[in-house]
Design a protein that fits this description.
By secondary structure, the chain is mostly helical. Helices cover 56% and strands 10% of the residues. Helix 2 crosses helix 3 and helix 4 crosses helix 5.
């Protein structure tokens, strides 16, 4: 077992909004190390969001992220030969990570012409409390609620 936890490397904030969260989002969006392409996709998506909603695209994106952020999840735990789904609070770092990954995953699964279009549509629907990413959060919460009876098994 290792002696100490490895140090977290601080991310540099993005150039446009000066926000570390945007950098984190873009890093998850990026494929094959193409960061400038990922930034272009993200900024185009925010412009499209601003155009369709008539509000600030960045603020809509922040709202969408907070809407798809889960509070509880189920974790598998083996007790006496049986595996139980035990509801647990989600760590702060993991909350952000999950919400980013869900937004990107469900925007990729959408149908549209470009990734910027798909991401923009997913951001708009998530900010309204709709869409695949929001549904995933709701399902996660529902699963935790259904397995509340096993909460006493928490380690």
């Amino acid at each position: 077992m290792r002696k100490s936890k490895p140090k977290k490397i601080a991310l540099a904030p993005d150039p446009k909004y000066n926000d570390v969260m945007v950098s984190r989002f873009v890093n998850n969006l990026m494929w094959q190390g193409k960061k400038s392409t990922a930034f272009n996709i993200f900024y185009d998506a925010l412009e499209k969001v601003a155009k369709t909603t008539g509000e600030d695209g960045y603020e809509i994106w922040r709202k969408a992220l907070s809407n798809v952020t889960p509070a509880v999840e189920v974790r598998s735990r083996r007790i006496g030969g049986a595996t139980f789904q035990i509801p647990a609070e989600v760590r702060a770092d993991r909350k952000i990570s999950l919400s980013i990954k869900w937004l990107i995953r469900y925007s990729r699964e959408r149908n549209g012409r470009s990734m910027a279009d798909k991401l923009a549509n997913e951001i708009v629907s998530a900010s309204k409390g709709e869409g695949g990413a929001y549904k995933k959060k709701e399902d996660t919460h529902r699963m935790a609620e259904a397995n509340k009876a096993f909460a006493h098994f928490r380690a």
